[in-house]
Amino acid sequence: MSHLMDSLERTVVRCAEGHVFTTDSFPMQQLGAERIGPGRLLRCPRCARLRHAVPVAGEQR
């Protein structure tokens, strides 16, 4: 199990409140032929609420 966890890439994301944190996975999901979008609903570790979060580009960290 530890080997599986080592292979997961961490993604830096920003929640709707502006908090920046990392998550183990941030899959890009699709609904049929249409992409849902870059955002996901994640629990922010800073405010402990479910927030819309998007990946952070390298220069925006």
End-to-end CA span: 30 Å
List the uncertain runs: none
What general outline do the C-alpha atoms trace? globular
How helical, in percent, are the residues? under 10%
Q: Strands of the largest sheet, in order across it?
A: 2-1-6-5
Class derived from helix and strand content: mainly beta
Q: How many extended strands?
A: 6
Protein name: Formate-dependent nitrite reductase complex subunit NrfF
What does this structure look like?
By secondary structure, the protein is mostly beta strands. The chain is 10% helix and 38% strand. It has one helix spanning 2-7; strands at 11-15, 20-23, 30-31, 34-35, 40-43, 50-55. The strands form 2 sheets. It has a 4-stranded antiparallel beta sheet, with no helix packed on it. A two-stranded antiparallel ribbon has the order 3-4. β1 (11-15) and β2 (20-23) form a beta hairpin. The termini are far apart. The mean pLDDT is 76. This is Formate-dependent nitrite reductase complex subunit NrfF. It comes from Streptomyces melanogenes.
Short description:
It comes from Streptomyces melanogenes. This is Formate-dependent nitrite reductase complex subunit NrfF. The protein is mainly beta.
